[in-house]
Each structure stands twice: as structure tokens, then as C-alpha cells.
Amino acid sequence: ASPADEEWPEAEKAEKLARGAALKWASGVFYRPEKLEALGQYRSRETKRNNSIQARLKSTVQSYLEGVSAGLEQLRSAAKEVQNVCQDLGAARWALIDSAEHFQVLQQMRTLMAEHVQLTSVVKVLPQLFSVHEVFSHTLQLLHEQHLLEAHAELMMLEHLRDDILFQLHLRGLSSAQATVLSYFSGLQELNESLAKQLWGIVGHSLQLVREDPVLFVSAVRIIEREEKIDDALLLDATFLPPGRPKGWRQKFYHILQETITGSHFLTACVDTTGPGLSRHLAALQREVVAELHVVKDLMVQCVPAHYNILSICTATYHQALTSHLQDILQEDLDKQALFLLLEWVLHVYQSPEMMSHPGLLPEVDVSALGPLVSPDLVDQTERKYVVKVKASVLEWMQRTLEVEFKEWFREEEPEKDHQGFYQSALPVIVMQMLSENIQVASLITASLQQKVYSMAMEELEAFLGRLREALVRCGKEHQKDRTVPKYYVPYLLAMLNNNLALSSSVSSLHPDTAHREVPTSLQAALDRTQKKACQLLLEELLLELQPLCMQLPSRKWLSGSQLVSSMCEVIDKYAKDFSCARKPIFMVLLMESERLVTSQYLRALMQKKMVCRSAEERGQLCVRLLQDATQLRELFHGLGLDRRQQSLEVVFALRELICLKDPALLSLEVLSFITKYPDVSDEHISTLLDLRGDVSKEVRHMVLEMMAQHPQALPDDYQPIFSIILVPAPELPFCLRKGKCA
């Protein structure tokens, strides 16, 4: 290999690749003879191509050689210049070595010059130093005369003198001498304190001064700003910080202003937290805060630099002070009126046009950016406290109303009647008015408070109805002891039923949501229980007069055509006249319950096994009597307004069919029809009815009872029980328990 190939191995590799490619091409050409004709053209093209490549290579090499030549020329020039510089530096070095002694003489002169300058400075300040105590006295006099700007100018001059001296001592490390200077200028501390005391006094009365003497307040602000500029300048150059710096008087200004605002209005210990006292306090706060913000906006803003942002700071201060003040008040045990006043003031008055949204304060004052005056949690807690107080008040009023109502039941005169002749009392009006007013008052605060009071009202009304039922029971017990007490027992029970109906019909109007006015389920159940209890007491009165008559049947005298049922009708008619003083829904309930009571008492009397028909003739008389009694009673109730389809006396007609059946063998079919219509009838009831016939054999009885066992009846959902409330006397034992008495 040649030396060139060893130096450039890539060239050898490229040549081999080129040769290989050429051989490959040539073999392809010779392999295909038709391409040999184009061999001349290929040779000509390749020749031109080689010539072009050689020309470009020659041009590139020529350019490269020219660049190398220019570079070499520049290197020769630079070498000559470096050599010249080295010669000049060597000459300068020898010149400096020769001048070293002269430099030492100049250093001594420089030191003497510095000492001379210092002595000159000391000589200049000597008159000022000698006059320091005189300036102290003059400055104090200016402060006493409230020439604040002049006094502050002298104070700054003294501080500047002291600070200059201390700085010079600091530079020379003479710390021991600094104590002497500080003692010499010790009067500056007294001047600063005296000036600061006057400044903070002015700031504390700033709201008054900007109206009466704004010049004094402006002077105080200018002094504070001077001190702030000095503080800022010294803090930028932290190499030396004089004693007492930074003063931070601007922050002190804000602090004193905030303390003044807080201390002048928001001392909780001085607040009367009763309803009237708190109302006066809140009204005074509203009036004073608005007035003072007007002063800040219209006057104080013009007396301070814009960057003080004084209106926003005062607004935030009032807002925060009010928040803290109201929280302190809410910690007290407040009455209902005080809690309402606070909620109304916080949620409505504070941001109203009468206070923070006053037209004279907008748009500069914007408390919406400061957040709520009282947190939502505290508002909710206060609302719950208010509901507790209202609940106690409602409970007290309801209890008092119930006590008055209970006493009225024992009066020697009937209850009052309305224009339609229905018994009534003031109880529902008082109760509804009390609840409605409290719910309406709560709606003036928030919808959530209204809902809380509404829920409480429903609970208290339900509890009140429970106490009312207990009062009815006590009254009923008193009446059982002496039926002349109360004298007008039935009329007052009817009045109570009318009252209960009035409550039931009007309680839905208390619901805050007019679109969903419905009576709560538990309250409706309480109203129903109260109505049921009063009806029960009335029916007990009716029963007391019916029982002596019902005890006389069945009997032979009754079969012979006594006026027993006519007497019962007279009693029923008398009570129906009393019931007519109840409103129609109540009257119909009482009429239906009375009819069911009469039916049950009539059936109960038949089930007492007092009589057994001894012949077919007696059975016929019994059937006639049953038909006459049932018809007379049915017509009576129909005349009173009770439709026959609503009556339960139909059971007497069905029972009559069992008695009238002539062939006992057909009793099974008749009983099956009877128990289908009245599924609550039992074996004992049917057995008693068969005994009443007097002609049923044991075999027929067994067959009837077996048929009943094979066809048990289920009670429909809408079925009104009749026989299940009637007890049948136990059958007599066919033998004696003690053999000694059976001889």
C-alpha cells in the first residue's frame, strides 16, 4: 500500500467500491449484447462527467489554498504585534519599579488629606453640637404649641446629625465612642415619644378633626410620610441602621385608626342585650357607621395620600369589628326578640341602602368583597336558637290557651255559636294566629328559618293535640263522677270537634310552599285521634242512656209490643239534635257512629241468651219484632240524613232471616249466605242465634258449625267489623266442679 492509502483508508475503500460498481455495470452490458451499441454514448457521458468533477476539485483546492495563505499572513502580523506589546510591558514594569518610593510619599499625603477633611467636618458640626440641647428645648416647645411640622423638621435635623456622627464612628470601628454620642443625644427619645403621642392622639380623633380642623390631621399624615421615606431609604442601604429605625409609623397609623374605630362602638360589655336595648344599639351602630364612612369618603380621603387606600381600610375595619362584636353578642343568652333583631340586621339591614349600600357610599364602598358579616354556620346556629326560643313561647301560650279552654268547659253556660249555629270557641283562632304570625315573622329573615319555624309549629301543634286529648279524658272522668259536671258536657265536646275540624282545614295554610300545602302525616293522625276521642266521649254519653233500654231485650214483654225501641229512638233523636250543632262532616261521623253503636248494642242484647223461643208462634213474633225494630231504627237514621247504604242495621234484617227460616235443615245454606256477607261472625255467635230459635237439633247444629269450618271467611280491607266487637257469654258447664254439692 502506498503512503497515501495508509493516510486515507477511506479513499481506498471508496475506490474499491467504485471499481466493483463499474465491473458490475460492465458485466451487465456485456451480458446483454443489445446494450453494446450505447457503449460509445456511455463513454462520452462519463468523460464529460469526469472532466466536470476534476474542474470542481481544482476550484475547491484553489480556494482552500488561497484561504490558508491569507491565514498565514495574519498569523505573521499578529506575532509581530505581540512581540511589540511584550517589549512595552517590560519597559512599563521597569518604570514602576523605579517610581515605588514616590508612591509611598503620596500615600502619606492621602492620609493627611483624609484627616484634614474629617477635622473640617468636625469644625463645621461643632456649632450644631453645641446647640443640640437648645434645639431640644425649642423642639419641645414647638410640640407643646402643636407646631408639628416645624418640630418634626428640627427633630429630623437632630437625628441626621446624630446618625452622621454614628456612621463615621461605625466606619472607623469606634464602638466605644457610640455610647457617648447616644447619651449626648438621649433627648431625642423624649422628643420622639412626645411627637408620637401627639400624632396618635390626632389619629385617634381623626374622624372629628377632618371635619373641624383638617390642617392638624394633614400635618400628622405628612410627618408620618416623611418618616416612612427615611425608613425606606435606610432599609435599602442596610450597611448602617441608626437606633430607633425603622419607626414604622404608617403601620402604627393604621393600627391606631383601627383601635379607635373598634373601641368607640364595639364594646360588648356595654350593650344591653334585651330586645329593646339591642334594637337601640343596632340602630345607633347603623347610624354612626354610615355617618363615619361618609366622613372618610368625603373628607379623610382628601387628607391622605391615595396609596393609603383609607376608605377600603376603614370599611374592612368596620366590617371585621362588627363581625367580632356580633359574635360576642351571640354568645350571650338572648331572648327571642334579640335573636330576631340580630338575624334581620345581619342578613337584611347591613347590606341594605340604609347602611353599607347607601347611595352616598356607592360605588367606592363594596362590602360584598369582604365576605359575609356572620358565617353561614353561625347564622344557622342562631336560627336554631331562635326556633328554640319561639318554641318555648309557643308552648307557654298554648298551655295557657288550653288551661283557659279547660276552665270554660265547666262554665254554667253553653259555648258560643257562630252565625250558622255551630258550637265553637276561640281556641283554633288563637292557636292558628299564634303559629301563623311566628311563621310569617320568620319568613322576613330567610326561607330556611321559615321552614324551621314551620316544622317546629307542626311538632308543637301535634303535642298540643295530645295535651288536648288528655284534657278531654280528665273532663270525661270528672263527668263520670258527677254527670251534672260539666253542666254542658255534650255541647263543649261538640265545640271541641268543630275546633278540631277548623284546625284540620286551616293547618295546611301554614305551609311556606303554596304549591305543596299538605298536612304532615303525623299531625293528621293526631287530629284524627283527637276527633276520635271526642266522638268516643259523646258516644259513651249516648250509650249510658241506651244501655238501660237495651237490657230489657229480648224478653216476652218486648215480644208483646212494648215501646222499647220507640224510647231508644227518642234518645237517639235528642242526641241528633245536639249533634246538629256540629258541622256537617262531624255530624255525619257522629250519626254513622251512633247508628253503628245502636246496631251493636241491639245485637249484643240478642246474644245474651236471655230468651229461647218455645214455639213456632214465638219465633214468628220474634221475626215480626225484629222487622219492626230494624225498620223503625232505619227510618229514623234515614230521616236524620244517613243513607241506607251507609247503615249497618241491614245485619238485623239478615239475622231475622235466620230466625224466620221454617225448615231447620236449610240452615246451613242460610248461614253460609250470612257469613259470606258478615265474615267476622264466629261459631259462638251462630250457635247463640241457633239457641234463640229453640228448634235446632244437635245434628243440625253440628252440620252448620262443620260447614262454617269448611268455609272460612277472609275480612275484606274495607269491611267494618260488627260481630267481632260483640262478646258472647260463656256457656254454662254441664257438671259441677265440686261433687259434694251434687247429691
From TrEMBL:
GO terms for cellular component: exocyst; transport vesicle. It is found in: Cytoplasmic vesicle, Secretory vesicle. Keywords: Cytoplasmic vesicle, Exocytosis. GO terms for molecular function: SNARE binding. Its main location: cytoplasm. It comes from the Eukaryota. Pfam families: Sec6. One of its GO terms (biological process) is exocytosis. InterPro entries: EXOC3/Sec6, EXOC3/Sec6_C. As part of the exocyst, may play a role in regulated exocytosis of insulin granules. Interacts with EXOC2, EXOC4 and EXOC5; may be part of the exocyst. Belongs to the SEC6 family. This is Exocyst complex component 3-like protein.
